[in-house]
Amino acid sequence: MSTITAEARLTSSRAISRAQRAVRVRRYLELAGTVVLSAAIIVWTLVPIYNMVMISLEPEGDVFTDHIFPRVWSIESFWGVLTQGHWYLEHFWHQFANSLYMGAMVTLLTLAIGSFTSFSIGRMRIRYGWLVSNAALLTYVIPASFLAIPFYRIMQNYGMANNLWSVIAALVAFATPYAFFVLQEYGRSIPIEVDEWARIDGASPIQVYLKIYLPLMAPALVAVGTYAMLLAWNEYLYQFLLLSSKSSMTVPVALAQFLSSDQSPWNYMMATAIIYALPPVAIYYAFRRRMTSGLTMGGVKG
User: Fold this and answer.
1) Of 66, 107, 286, 292, which has the fewest Cβ atoms less than 10 A away?
2) Which of 259, 245, 213, 250 is nearest to 115 (CA)?
């Protein structure tokens, strides 16, 4: 009996040992696969950025090169952008200011409209609020590119062609439904009793909105504001259609003009793109923690 028990224990220990080895091997394979996949994604992401930097550091940028490092290092292209030293860049800082203004207005209007709407529907419980919610999300059924020509005709009819506010109006229309959805879902995590206590103490709806709702919604507001800013900063189609003069156009539209030349100054183009990319990168890394929490709460609450 003892012999059978010992053999059973030995068999069981061997089976456990084999299972543990299989688990370790599977973990090593999963780790190796994760490392390989991560390395491939990092290389895939960084190679275009590296090419931009490499071309911008060459005295005469050539996009068709077969070398890994610039033969001659030069920051002439960056200096040319900062000093508007190329005839393509003679309005760079004015166009950069247009981009900043457009991004700021789109962000502010999106936050204002989205927060007012989510507060009135989610906190004040207005009648038929659900209809407004569903109608807002239905706007994403039609791709934004399909609406470009109708928007262009509308702005032409109202005399807003070649005006920054025509682009701002279009981008706010596209960003507001998403803002409303995130803010409404995030607002459900805030107890409604907080508003009721404030009203018992004599607070008006505007005071509740300004002193209670907005401070508690800060993470979601940061997430939505960052999204709206990046949408306005990176958008090209509507800016190209609605802005034509050099004094009104933004940097993305101005960058496209580099391609109209027989010999495009690629180094200046890449340097301009790198400088133009710095503000959204700075904004993202400054608010990424609040943005992550805002998007997470807004996405999981139902």
Assistant:
1) 66
2) 213
Q: CA–CA separation, 283 vs 215, rounded Å?
A: 20
Phi and psi angles of residue 72, each rounded to the nearest 5 degrees, phi first: -130, 120
For residue 152, the 8-state DSSP code is H
Is pLDDT above 90 for 110? Answer: yes
- Residues near 282 by beta carbon (within 8 Å), at least 6 away in sequence: none
162: left (phi over 0), alpha (psi -120 to 50) or beta: left
Quick one: 92 exposed, middle or buried, by C-beta within 10 A (0-12, 13-18, 19+)?
buried
Query: How crowded is residue 296: how many other Cβ atoms within 10 Å of its Cβ?
Result: 14
Question: What contacts 164, CB < 8 A, 6 or more positions away?
Answer: 98, 101, 102, 105, 243, 248, 250
Give residue 267's Cα distance to chain centre.
Answer: 26
pLDDT digits (tens, 9 = 90+) for 286-297: 877 766 654 555
Q: What residues contact 245, with CB distance under 8 A and at least 6 apart?
A: 162
Residue entry with tokens 């370790």: 24
Indicate the range of 51-65, 193-207, 221-235 predicted with least confidence: 51-65
Burial (CB count <10 Å: 0-12, 13-18, 19+), residue 191:
exposed
Tokens 């900062």 belong to: 82
